[in-house]
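$ run holo --ligand "GEK" --emit tokens
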Amino acid sequence: MPAFSTYTAGTAVSKEPDRLFAQPLAQVPDFAFNEDVVRVFPDMIKRSVPGYPTIVENLGVLAAQFAQPNSVLYDLGSSLGAVTQALRRHVRTDGCRVIAVDNSAAMVERCREYLNGQDSMFQELLPVEVIEGDILALDFQPASVVALNFTLQFIAPDQRTALLSRIRQSLLPGGALILSEKLRFNDPEEHALLTDLHVAFKRANGYSELEIAQKRSAIENVMKPDSLEEHRERLLAAGFSKVVPWFQCLNFASLIALP
Ligand SMILES: Nc1ncnc2c1ncn2[C@@H]1O[C@H](C[S@+](CC[C@H]([NH3+])C(=O)[O-])CC(=O)[O-])[C@@H](O)[C@H]1O
Ligand SMILES: O=C(O)C(=O)Cc1ccccc1
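-- output --
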């Protein structure tokens, strides 16, 4: 029996601790969102991303300000649906529905289980559809809120502007894109300081030097962070009119981009 804990307003999520990189690996494979990662994901993301619980909960609060009646709210790269659950806790706008999309079959399967659990515990939640698919191939419907919560960094850099342009085209007046990302910094001293402080955050959360080093080499080929300046310029190039950072903790930040 997997261990479960209740958080996010009562919905049970796995609390299996992340020890994926605890043993020395002869060769560290590229990071993938497979079944092993799915089992430990809630623990991994909370212990790895400073500010993650604050970002997710407040993403729901922000979304409620931008949600327009009878529109779609997208959770792109939904993983286990933490953002979708926050949207359902906070958005009360008439006729809204959530579309969560992820291309990891293992994530989608577990996400559907969690959302069914939330459905059975609470009434009058926004309807949700969970799609297993590539967000680069998605046919966007008119949307008032689009959340990319730590997903764009996994998209090939040369595909990012096109994806953001398509999101911009789908956004309704009064809507918003909420984009959370790990940042890199153009100033080498600032980059080194915030990278060291992120390592200290992981150490304080119980990760060993070996776990930190092996995870770093697992993600370096698959996760390519940009600077805040690059994000701003790309969002403006994609047609957004205004970019407003609303949260930063160490080298992790979240931005609101307005159509
Ligand atoms: N092309 C793609 N199409 C669809 N999904 C993708 C694609 N590329 C990557 N993904 C998916 O994007 C998610 C990124 S995790 C998001 C956390 C979540 N938002 C959270 O708030 O808990 C971030 C992290 O682990 O740092 C994974 O589930 C991938 O399968
Ligand atoms: O662990 C890290 O160093 C990160 O940058 C964040 C992260 C969190 C979960 C999966 C992949 C990357």
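-- notes --
Residues 1-10 have pLDDT under 50 and may be disordered.
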